[in-house]
Write a structure and sequence with these properties.
By secondary structure, this protein is mainly α. 81% of the residues lie in helices and 0% in strands.
Amino acid sequence: MKLPVIKHLTNFIEENDEDYVIETIETLEALTDVSSLKDEELDVIGELISNLYGAIEVNKSIKEGASKKDALNNFMQRVTGSIDK
């Protein structure tokens, strides 16, 4: 997950609608069923999906009252905390 990408996607959600991101996730998940995709391609799709889900989580925190900065920082702390375990 990349914080600059998640931040950009969070801005996109604020300016547009979360539904676009959800539909993009669904599209990318459907692409993973293509049998001819190489492992590297699947890795890229997986990274994109992770960033999109991250932006949705950050947006949820913002809707619950957190500032954008705090929402982003808290999300990344949760992610890095789960990796360290």
